[in-house]
Amino acid sequence: MSLVVAGALAYVLPPIEVAGVSVPAALIVAYAVALGVFIDLDHFLIARFKTGSWDAVRFCLSNPTAAVADQDRIFGRGDVGVLSRLLSHLLLAGILVSLLALASVPLAILTGAVLYVHIVCDVIWDIWRLDHHADAAANEDELLRALR
Predict the structure, then answer these.
(1) Residue 142 reports pLDDT greater than 70
(2) Which ranges does the record mark as transmembrane (predicted)?
């Protein structure tokens, strides 16, 4: 999603300048994609805070493909938490956009838009998972009632 947002905004925003230097559109798009991916590194800090361990980082370093192909294996249940993750993303977005606005308003807009879409996608994913688990629980309850 970061790629789509960055591509669209690189097209409609005025040229982005930082410290008087015009930044090429390709670099802007690469920045936005990296931002959309690396914002999730906060999950490791949250897990470290909650568990007192760097096990998730160790796991990813010893199983790098899991970071892309099998993310469900990285964190244990409750290691990060939905609300902790969303709060962290919102805090980081607010701080980053505010600081970048001092250097380049178009870059701050791009950053805010990319992070906004990332957070919205996270919420959509969380709602889907909640609904999916609620449906599974309801089906399990129906099955248990039928077996009685």
Answers:
(1) no
(2) 28-49, 90-119
